[in-house]
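Example with several molecule types.
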Amino acid sequence: MKKILRFVVVIGLFMLILQCSSRQAPQQRPEYALVIHGGAGTILKNNMPPEKEKEFRDALTTALRTGEKILATGGSSLDAVVATIRFMEDSPLFNAGKGAVFTHEGKNELDAALMNGADLNVGAVAGVTRVKNPIELARKVMENSPHVLFARDGAEAFAVEQGMELVDPNYFRIESRWHSLQKALEREKEKKSAFYRGTKNDNKFGTVGCVALDKMGNLAAGTSTGGMTNKRFGRIGDSPIVGAGTYASNKTCAVSATGWGEFFIRNVVAYDIAAMMEYKNFPVQKAAAAAIEKVGKMKASGGVIVLDKNGNIAMQFNSAGMFRGFSIAGEKPVVKIFGREE
Amino acid sequence: MKKILRFVVVIGLFMLILQCSSRQAPQQRPEYALVIHGGAGTILKNNMPPEKEKEFRDALTTALRTGEKILATGGSSLDAVVATIRFMEDSPLFNAGKGAVFTHEGKNELDAALMNGADLNVGAVAGVTRVKNPIELARKVMENSPHVLFARDGAEAFAVEQGMELVDPNYFRIESRWHSLQKALEREKEKKSAFYRGTKNDNKFGTVGCVALDKMGNLAAGTSTGGMTNKRFGRIGDSPIVGAGTYASNKTCAVSATGWGEFFIRNVVAYDIAAMMEYKNFPVQKAAAAAIEKVGKMKASGGVIVLDKNGNIAMQFNSAGMFRGFSIAGEKPVVKIFGREE
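Resulting structure tokens for the full complex:
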């Protein structure tokens, strides 16, 4: 009896509420498909005023339409992913580009990655502070350099060399994010810890991501983020790390993650999903669920969007909610925010 | 006939000479085991004076002994990996710590990572310029922060906060490495390309790495490097990227890679080996060979050392040689440099 009780308690401790939405594609591969996320976390209907909810639903719908338009007219999955993420970077609603969270030093340091499923090419940047659209810089790293990942001042020097649009760092500032940093700094002071650890209630990971399948059957994945409020020491999270926060291969699937980045890195979440599909023949939903379960076992939260080469979709998360949506050729786009939303 | 010819040519183009050494452990798990590498590349007996070869063999032997001593007396695999890599960082023979290659700007920017197979914890740093032993800073990131990866000036600020020994950047300078940069800059000028692409003959990836299994059955992996000669823009390679150049899990194996980092990132090499072992039940040698074959298909070169939870070893590379060695409880340590070395 004691053993059973202990088992129940352990399972109870480990399990976070598992949420998922999946969509089985029709027998035939759809002409094209696109999935997005705008971050996961403690996103509850009770805490969100209706007008805010509408703002988010509208932004997610516009993001989907931006990418869909490109795919419908025969554009590449890479183009669709970049344009969709660019729209979400420009929106102050999400923690990416304008509206990014603040570092300990009161700066906005942005990470982004882009991966091409056709040739496994990658471009990623970490810790840029003046590049208006980090996803576009990631694309330039992919296409105009033999390298994969550039960081901080180095990445910014590359942006300058590439003639990219630079902005004043103040461009990214949103008052509510600044306020979040001040609250975090206060809490840190009280705890006298060198590091601020988020609590369950303020874990909102506003990272944005997009995965797409184009008419040629090519997959692509992209992710962009401001990281975590109050991050320090040039901290790099999972978004720009291939295999952790971003992955795409035409062999299997395209993945973009959002959540407590450190745990997504340690579990190599994005590639793990692809590996389970390739090596264990898991369908996309089962692979996504297994990967998020591993993150949950470490008591961390977050989510992933996954699109496989046949157009099947998984949107899996273990937090209360995740801003998400998908669009499939010939169907009405779907946008969801909260858990268990029909 | 034409088809067959084309097939042969394609295979011929794709295939680089596959080299491997593996060692099947006895039925029972050995008390402890340690494997190291000091980089892979165009390492040929014809091009290496005997006294230089002796220097390398001596250094590799001392490195093995350094770690073995710790494991034999019941120390942890983490301690053994850090001490072994620290020794190789201090040796000017290898491209890590003292003796690192130079960046385009004539600096030494160092990357390192450490992973604990027991709890999947990780510490990594990228682009530090004044930390004498980057592997020790990686350990501090793992143990004294909730984060995984710190970059450049940020990582250095963390080192200062942790009271680490900082050195004048000149400490890392070795004349032969400086000369390599000058040669690369000249070649770049001739080619009028913004990026220097290594040629087959000067691809030497001197990264160092160590994987260990201790008496408690815990695996650990570590990697440290100066990256690639003439690297620019804060380029981060595979060494500090979990799943690419470094990985360890008690479930499967510990891996450290060396080679053309971009291709190890794109193929998520280190975790791919673990995934093939876990999901496909591949023995360690088969998994290592399959992963390096993928890198070879992209016409890139390099190698990996892998140690599984039962003490089985793989040292796989597709370059002419790889500095490597292993030490198993109760057996004489083995050191090798060239391909097909008995």
